[in-house]
Design goal:
By secondary structure, this protein is an alpha/beta fold. It has 2 domains: 211 residues, P-loop containing nucleotide triphosphate hydrolases (Rossmann fold, 3-Layer(aba) Sandwich), CATH 3.40.50.300; 69 residues. It contains 6 helices and 13 strands. The strands form 3 sheets. The protein has a 6-stranded mixed beta sheet with strand order 5-6-7-3-8-9, sandwiched between helices. Strands 11-12-10-13 form a 4-stranded antiparallel beta sheet, covered by helices on one side. A hairpin with a 2-residue loop joins strand 11 and strand 12. Helix 2 packs across helix 3 and helix 5 runs parallel beside helix 6. It is globular and about 70 Å long. The two termini are 24 Å apart.
């Protein structure tokens, strides 16, 4: 995502005399941003996400800087005449992959979300949770610059929920932007760059105290190159144990992203050890 997506004085209503669902919305989504959108049912959250995804057009105002976008809707149309593998392979080909590359990408994403056992099952026969895994996979398959998630975690099992959090971290680490709505207030707690609330058709940025997410954490001991400086490690806390060596603590769901960032840095960092942690470090030690 090379430029920001901008909404300037955007409004949306669904017929000429109908009520405004959204009005006077100004918003900028920059590369690497993770943005949470909150609000009660019927306030316009899904309408905002559909505008960001390009599914709906604004009734007034302008949207500029449109990146390559993928969208996971609140309700995915599961009764499609495909199997999950066939559907994802077809989409991969639409995105410009060869048939063989599209099939490999489909298998990879189905495997990541634990959907391999029913990859060749007609989608009309899948459960809600299984269909949701396909919905998430179809969005990530496109390697989007902007990923828009409308209640995408709903219906997923615990392993798939963690995998989606990991995929979100990978997208933002790679410079993509992610905008999401989720009913669980602890979802990615402490991670978003900004949180917005939709109230009565208006969008307000919410100020919140950043707290670390609950759940298992991982401790990573690393040794840096001479004169090296730790790269930006979102959600990681760090303590220098000796000059050039650090003890990093990160939620387990983000450990893969942290390790990949360290190992692909130039110059790279040497990972000395990886172990489970009982408790996360204090917030004042956050990298």
């Amino acid at each position: 995502m090379h430029r920001a997506l901008r909404l300037d004085n955007v409004g949306r209503r669904y017929n000429l005399r109908g009520p405004w669902v959204l009005r006077n919305v100004d918003l900028m989504i920059s590369p690497g941003d993770l943005v949470r959108v909150e609000g009660t049912n019927g306030t316009g959250k899904s309408t905002l996400l559909r505008l960001l995804a390009g599914i709906d057009a604004p009734t007034e105002g302008r949207i500029t800087g449109r990146p390559r976008t993928a969208y996971v809707p609140e309700r995915f149309p599961s009764a499609l005449p495909f199997t999950p593998a066939g559907y994802l392979t077809h989409l991969g080909a639409v995105h410009g992959l060869s048939r063989a590359a599209a099939a490999r990408a489909a298998d990879d994403w189905l495997h990541r979300f634990g959907a391999t056992p029913y990859a060749r099952t007609p989608m009309s026969q899948l459960s809600k949770g299984s269909s949701q895994k396909v919905a998430v996979a179809q969005a990530l398959l496109a390697d989007p610059e902007l990923l828009v998630l409308d209640e995408a975690w709903t219906g997923l099992d615990a392993a798939a929920r963690s995998e989606l959090e990991r995929a979100v971290a990978e997208r933002t680490a790679a410079g993509g932007a992610v905008v999401f709505v989720d009913h669980d207030p602890s979802r990615l707690a402490g991670v978003p760059d900004a949180t917005y609330a939709v109230r009565d058709g208006a969008l307000d940025r919410r100020t919140e105290q950043v707290t670390a997410p609950a759940g298992p954490h991982v401790v990573v001991e690393v040794q840096g190159p001479p004169g090296g400086r730790l790269p930006d490690l979102p959600l990681a806390s760090a303590r220098e144990t000796v000059p050039g060596a650090y003890r990093l603590t990160v939620p387990a769901s983000h450990s893969d992203v942290l390790l990949r960032t360290l190992l692909t840095a130039r110059p790279s960092w040497h990972v000395v050890s990886v172990a489970h942690a009982d408790l996360p470090l204090d917030q004042e030690d956050r990298a």
